[in-house]
Amino acid sequence: MHFLLCTVAALVALTSALPTAPNHSHVIHEKRNSLPAKWAKRSRMDSTAILPVRIGLKQRNVDRAHEYLDSVSNPTSKSYGKHWSIEDVRNTFAPNDESRDTVLQWLSQNGVSTVKNEGALHTLEFDMSVAEAERLLKTEYFVYEHDGSGTAHVACEEYSVPEHVSDHINIITPTLHFDVKPSQHLQRRDIPNPADPLTGSHPYHEEYQGPTTPTKAGDDDNSDSMQTCLDAITPDCLRSLYNIPEPTSSPSSDNSFGVVEYSPNTYNGDDLDQFFTSFTKFDKGARPDLVSVNDGTLDDSDPSSFELHGESNLDFQYAMGLTNPQKVTLYQIGGNTMTASDADFIKTKVVSTSWGFNEKDLTPMYMETLCNEYMKLGLQGISILFSTADHGVAGNTETCDNNDRFQPDFPASCPYVTAVGATMLDASATDIAGTLSSGGQPEVAIDSNVISGGGFSDVFAMPDYQQDVVAKFLKDSPPSYSGDQFNNSGNARGLPDISLNGHGYAVIVGGKQQAVDGTSASTPAFAAMITLINEERLAAGKGTVGFLNPVLYQYADKYVKDVTSGRNPGCGTDGFEAVEGWDPVTGLGTPDYVGLRDVFMGLD
Asked: Is 115 annotated as a binding residue?
């Protein structure tokens, strides 16, 4: 799950380039002590290859990030809902002139003559050869290979900058940052840009073995229709499970919903049409609005390939299936290098992303930089939702490091996003409709091809909104594992925040119905719910809800159904246990739409 973050750039001309740079003492800016799991160093990188170098400058006021975001998202704040403009965000966090001038002078002294300066003003961009980058950063670039997939990646293991420059730089890429995907979901393919890592994790799937004719839960008054949801989850199943209403036929032009995808994975239009005909009440022909980022394009080749179309088909069949005729935006990200830059391309009020990394694949500085970009989106009234990975406490990979330390997922571990885990219907349930009508919980933590990711961050501190519930979990249900296996400090960001069903989604791929599991399924479904709540708030003359977590935690008793059965095993352990209240398996539990809507409608 990463963002490729770019905006319209202005050229900054650098003058007085010197033939040789002054002899400043260098300090290590970032360093890796070990490689991510399954990556091995192979060979030195071709010195003539061109790298797209990105330098993130230190930004002002990031130490007040939590304070700023809390002021507009905490329902007890007098400024709740008073979201910032993009101009307010840029002016508040723009680097100071000293930082910009110092870094530009250093680059000029090292022969860099032209630099792009992105719209948010905190990232400098330029291209240089591997040999030039090695001299600039006092490092060596190697080709690394993932032993499960053969994926190639270019990186270094440490880099240095002059001591007087280090204080003005946040992060430089490409350097230490790896991207690991489960091997069974990878395609071996060439990387056109030597600094471009492949992205994210895919959902699991298997050929659907259910009834030939799809059944829509709720088609009639027969409670047996809900039992078919054990065979396949459909939009009507989700509506019945979570009291989700049919969307309005005339959505507000101020409402918007976006889904992020990474090339080459793209949706297939024929599959969308077949899904709409089979499982919804609207006609075929609806398509997401395409926003191409870094040359992201749609790929109609090999329509039966799950690797090419599975993730995006899943996302849009349910994002659109639950919210149509609300327009949905596709942010299709191309194959350029990842940068911890700004996120100006995101304009929609809700964004769902089902891609991610283990924290260990990146570096703390990189994650903190990118997490602050999500904070800025929250300030603007945008709800950011990320899936929590599909291998339990092992995160995005089936195996952990040699010490079997748990692998929290990023960006889900960022305290400024909403992390969504997955549940499933209890396979032994004989009367789902009756359980729902009596207010019971028919779901347990997912235990299938997928195990919901969850745990405690090794990078981010526990946010205020989580402190009470996480402290209760650690006191009442203390995990038996030591600090060698997870961050048991009692002050770590816990995840997930909330969960939805993520098992057995009926998805059309290549004209065939398949069953799909994953937090990749639960995340767009919850994002669709938030989009519908935004619609109701806009109709009442209110604003969109923005960053969700302070409200989700403060009012959990008004809308949550607790999940108290199941675990998320991984790393050779049974993982954590779902218990009463918040837990690092299913978070707060599953949401009831009506209860959550009433909470948000009661706020200004």
From this structure: no
Residue 527: predicted pLDDT? 98
- DSSP at 94: P
Taking domain 204-601, whether its CATH number is 3.40.50.200 is answered by yes
* Six token digits for residue 314: 């899943």
Please indicate if the annotation marks 509 as binding a ligand.
no
* 70, 157, 196, 311: the active-site residue: 311
What tokens does 123 get?
């990232």
**Looking at residue 6, what is its pLDDT?**
33
Q: What is the pLDDT of residue 146?
A: 78
> Domain-by-domain residue ranges, the chain?
9-59+94-185, 204-601
> According to the annotation, is 497 in a ligand binding site?
no
Catalytic residue check, 307: no
In the set 457, 520, 522, 535, the catalytic residue is: 520
pLDDT digits (tens, 9 = 90+) for 509-526: 999 999 999 999 999 999
Cα dihedral sign, 117-173-203-524:
negative
The answer to whether residue 34 is catalytic is no
Residue 579, both tokens: 């218990």
The amino acid present at 308, given as its one-letter code, is: L
- 563 in a labelled binding site: yes
Grouping H, G, I as helix, E, B as strand and the rest as coil, residue 239 is helix
Model pTM?
0.91
Whether 311 is a known active-site residue: answer yes
Q: Which position among 315, 342, 361, 535 bears the catalytic label?
A: 315
